[in-house]
Amino acid sequence: MVHIVIDGYNYINRVRSSPVLDSASLEMLRGALLEKLARYKRRQGNRITVVFDAQESRWPSRHRESHKGIDVVYSKEHETADDVIIGWVREKPAGIVVVSSDRAIIDEAKRAGVPFMTPPKMEEAMASCKEYDKDEEEESVTASTKRGNPRKLPKKLRKAARSLHKIKS
């Protein structure tokens, strides 16, 4: 099974056309991202972890929670989401696909031979996953007609992962 690791705030800032200006809208955008990923996870079945920087952290260590099957990790005090993701890439690269446009994360993923994609590419992959954001009512109707392996990544994401395995620094 593929484990998709997403740099949360990097993702939010890359798929939006305007910058996030206040913490209230940031919290709303964080919730919207987690909802979108939860719908995608229901369709695809992959493990998804979103890592956020814990701004003004109240926790001396990493804080974990779950949102509808999505693992959410907040970095600890004096640690960034980049540090967390780079640490995971170095520790256990097998099965991980990293989603970020941060140069340090991408460079580390290349060194470790870990496939990566940018947030806009992940958006495309989610959009190409047919009907991932339909209502529950429509979901029951289309479930009987949907074909293919529901635990398999979309074709575009599989193709990206195969090509990324070839990239070596």
TrEMBL record:
InterPro entries in UniProt: YacP-like (IPR010298)
Coiled coil: none
Start-end of Basic residues biased regions: 148-169
Disordered, as annotated region: 126-169
PANTHER family from the UniProt entry: YACP-LIKE NYN DOMAIN PROTEIN
Protein name stated in the entry: NYN domain-containing protein
Protein source organism: Syntrophorhabdus aromaticivorans
Lineage of origin: Bacteria, Pseudomonadati, Thermodesulfobacteriota, Syntrophorhabdia, Syntrophorhabdales
